[in-house]
């Protein structure tokens, strides 16, 4: 029996409650082993201070989570300089990878095909800098409901194809929220194999009504988490499981220490189920 | 140059404003050539009365739109009897096809795989009755954001595979809202070919925030409508284009005659663009 994977928490899970400094402290106090960090929270804290706090707690930075790689939310194209700076930050944090979300359609465009070509070109242009910095780029497929505004990469198949094309130093991020519905998920996780650089957990609530920030805690929704976890492990992924729950209606309103403790408890239940799957109904 | 396809309107577009009798009258008055009908609206009107009104206006019934084929919204399995009755209604309406939406996960289940197997079995069991009634079953792929609660069939590839497996008397419904994001859309529309039994139009608003009833009018969103229209026509589809816009924030609040007239105007613009595509930006 292999050791269970470390549990990490993406700081988006406690975004409104905790600054980066508070999250580092709070997660570490609860025995969490890794943290996913966002650029706006890092900027608030300052890079030097963040490095000191992370070093003092021994937390791993399991991901540096970057959106709008190609276009920003206003539909304006990004500069290569902006993205190189983010890679430098990921490197300064010794992040396991930079999770890259592409952005949606530029203002005035109705062509996802163009956006997808631009995503490939942007990543290809950036890759030498990432390789030099020793930072792997984890391309994250984002749920098709966010194709217009968050990312033109919407299936694991697309992300894996892109990572294969770009080659060394790239891979994919598998967030169950974005891929759980995919009829080809099992085959695509197996195909992604060693390209899986990040694995993120949450749940899809059966009564989800909003496109943004309406995620559920593991076990409260309909995603077969233990099955997907087993697929990812069977594909060779041995890294952390990073919980990422943006939840306006529930978890963002709770005491953050409570959120963290529920994450731990539910992750244990997930591991137990994966170890001893219940008989299918 | 082939004749332009007839414009139809799905009565969901004027659901809160108009009963079925009012929709038949209102669409016909505006020169619309076909109507998509829903079971609850038919029940309100009565089948005999609906048949009389449709015959008197000369409208085609381009679809009879049936949800929850496998499980209802409460997660309870449907009976075959219920679905056979719906086929009989479609037949009595001389509908071009019955658009079939499967339903999501049964209560307590987290297995889309099981739901998909059940969808296949349910449709296979129903097919002899549909064939005897002369009603084609158009399997509709529904946007992945509704996998939990509306349908376990979420890509055109899945719907086409299912129709191929089931054979004669089955096909697919292509609603741009559900499929526009699909990276394999062009290839999948070509592969669906003569199996395309229904083509539905609306738009995806860039600022979509809700999963339900937040569709846009053609031209107000980011779907490349003229391109998808051209794909569907090139695949051999010569039937009606049926507008289906559920819009709580806008079109459901307007005078229905105005909604219909905007549908006509925007459909003309779409055809003009398809005839003379603008140079890509």
Give descriptors for this structure.
homodimer, 281 residues, alpha/beta, 8 strands, 13% strand
Q: Any chance you could write out the topology, listing elements then pairs?
A:
The structure is a homodimer of 281-residue chains.
Chain A: E1 7-10, H1 20-29, E2 34-37, H2 39-45, H3 47-57, E3 60-66, H4 80-92, E4 98-100, H5 112-133, E5 137-139, H6 156-166, E6 170-175, H7 176-179, H8 185-192, E7 196-201, H9 225-234, E8 241-243, H10 256-275
Parallel strand pairs in A: 1-2, 1-8, 2-3, 3-4, 4-5, 5-6, 6-7, 7-8
Helix pairs in contact in A: 1-3, 4-5, 9-10
Protein described:
The structure is a homodimer of 281-residue chains. Chain A is 41% helix and 13% strand. Chain A has an eight-stranded parallel beta barrel with strand order 1-2-3-4-5-6-7-8, surrounded by five helices. Chain A has helices at 20-29, 39-45, 47-57, 80-92, 112-133, 156-166, 176-179, 185-192, 225-234, 256-275, and strands spanning 7-10, 34-37, 60-66, 98-100, 137-139, 170-175, 196-201, 241-243. Chain A has ten helices and eight strands. The first copy, chain A, is α/β, with parallel strands linked by helices and 281 residues long. Chain A is globular and about 45 Å long. At the A-B interface, helix 5 of A face helix 5 of B.
């Amino acid at each position: 029996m292999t050791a269970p994977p470390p549990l990490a928490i993406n700081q988006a899970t406690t975004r409104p409650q905790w600054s980066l400094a508070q999250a580092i402290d709070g997660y570490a106090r609860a025995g969490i082993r890794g943290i996913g960090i966002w650029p706006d929270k890092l900027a608030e804290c300052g890079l030097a201070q963040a490095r000191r706090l992370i070093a003092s707690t021994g937390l791993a930075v399991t991901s540096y989570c970057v959106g709008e790689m190609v276009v920003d939310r206003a539909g304006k194209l990004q500069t290569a300089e902006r993205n190189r700076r983010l890679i430098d930050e990921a490197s300064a944090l010794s992040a396991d990878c930079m999770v890259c979300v592409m952005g949606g359609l530029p203002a005035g465009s109705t062509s996802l095909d163009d956006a997808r070509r631009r995503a490939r070109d942007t990543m290809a242009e950036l890759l030498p800098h990432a390789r030099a910095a020793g930072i792997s780029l984890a391309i994250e497929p984002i749920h098709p409901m966010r194709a217009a505004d968050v990312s033109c990469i919407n299936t694991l198949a697309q992300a894996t194809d892109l990572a294969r094309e770009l080659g060394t130093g790239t891979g994919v991020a598998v967030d169950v929220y974005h891929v759980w519905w995919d009829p080809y998920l099992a085959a695509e996780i197996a195909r992604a194999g060693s390209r899986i650089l990040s694995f993120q957990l949450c749940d899809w609530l059966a009564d989800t009504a909003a496109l943004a920030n309406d995620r559920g805690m593991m076990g409260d929704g309909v995603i077969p988490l233990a099955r997907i976890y087993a697929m990812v492990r069977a594909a060779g992924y041995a890294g952390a499981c990073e919980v990422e729950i943006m939840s306006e209606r529930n978890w963002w309103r709770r005491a953050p220490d409570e959120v963290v403790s529920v994450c731990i408890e539910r992750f244990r239940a997930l591991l137990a189920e994966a170890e001893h799957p219940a008989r299918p109904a």
